[in-house]
Amino acid sequence: MRAPYLAPLLIVLCGAGPCQREEREVRPDPAAVVETDEKVALTTITAGPATPVVETSGQGREYETNAYHLSQGKTLYKWFNCNGCHANGGGDSGPPLMDDSWIYGGSIENIVATIREGRPNGMPSFRERIPDPQIWEIAAYVRSMSGNVPAAAAPSRSDSLHAHPAENRQTPRPPVAGGSTPPSGLMPE
Amino acid sequence: MQHPTWTRPLLALPFLLAGCAGWPSALDPKGPTAADLAWLIQLFTVLLGVIWLLVVLAVGLVVFRRRWTAAAMPMPKAVHPSEERRPTVIVMALVVATCITVLVLTGLSFAGQQRLFGVDEPAVTIQVTGHQWWWEVRYQDGDPSRVFTTANEIHVPVGLSIRLVLESDDVIHSFWVPNLAGKQDLVPGQQNQLGFTVTEPGIYRGQCAEFCGLQHAHMGIIVVAESEPAFRAWQEAQIRPGKLPETAEQRQGMQVFLSHACVMCHAVRGTPAGGRTGPDLTHVGSRRHLAAATLPLTRGSLAAWIADPHGIKPGVNMPIVPLASDELNSLAAYLEGLK
Question: Which site among A17, B56, B111, B298 is 20 to 30 Å from B75 CA-CA?
């Protein structure tokens, strides 16, 4: 049996699909704000034949796919003066963040570990200075600079002049090991 | 005599006006600009109310007269030109009266605006920057060493002309202290100005009047109007760097403050803490309220706010900073001591 109203009804029902919106936790549980345990590898070299052990909590995906977290990360990147050394991602006295080469690994867990612990030649440790959820937000935003988060969630505009195409228009550049501390970041000899 | 039941709620309506007493109310002006605005709205209401009554009376009169005379005197098919003259004159006179009313009211509100945005030299210039969801307050001075920043509480001297320079850091906000002046928007990338004078000492509450996000309703501000000597004394106290901790507990609190996330956003002048993205806490203990006029400032509310800011203002930018309970206690003691 064919009903004439069936097709329009189906179209309307399909149209309701996108009404499902991203949900934001506006009242996080204070007891749940604890530093997660991430085992990351900074290099592919290990003693013996085995590969390095990598064990992550898996909560990185939650941050990478959430538009609110990414845009908070973008705000905090400026508030906490990340651009003081890394500029808008192009790098200055610190290495660039919008390219594909990562000295200490380009996964979100690696970036979180880098922010928490600091790295030689200038990167300070932000453990306890930035609460853990905010570190994850910044790391997720840093991933968006090289197009490694879903374009639907990445920030689409800046509050100031755009230094480069918006993060949601970046072509994905999957991380590869490499890069080095720029000469300006090294100790004078 | 039995009253119909629906009249009782109507009779109770005037009691609701009692809610207009106290603060904040645009109908209770405490300065010339607010008085201008209150006078304008009263004039508009009374004048236009009278005109509306007259129009309703006239319409009623026509309807009822027509009903009484319709049977006796049917509507003529054609009207003689000499009889048409009278309605024409009446309509013309009413059109002219309407034009004059509109012109006079326009002129009056324009004159009010001239006073509102007057360019007389202010005695105190204060830069107010809107943030989600608090107010940054910066007292300007020709001498840079006398410029200082505070938050969510403006002190002004009574009787002197004040100018606010309004800016925004993120989205559009609106500064509105009903007893003192009309609303003025804080627009990102633009400087707006608002001038007013307060005639009566007191504490006046203001509110963000442009929807600016989740905590728009909890973006309050307090204007404290005091005598000029009291204002100058307050100003001198605010210019000084933050008070050094006195007790052992406060000293521990200062260490907690300087070694945790607080310093990333907040400043206490005289210490290494120099964050600029959150409210300046140099003299936080001297303020009346916390979290943009949301909580009264006590040691307890300070601790509650730090322990769970999202429980008080869900969605706020202040993060949850995990602290041990003795760290939280000493931190609250240190902040409360920053008089």
Answer: B56
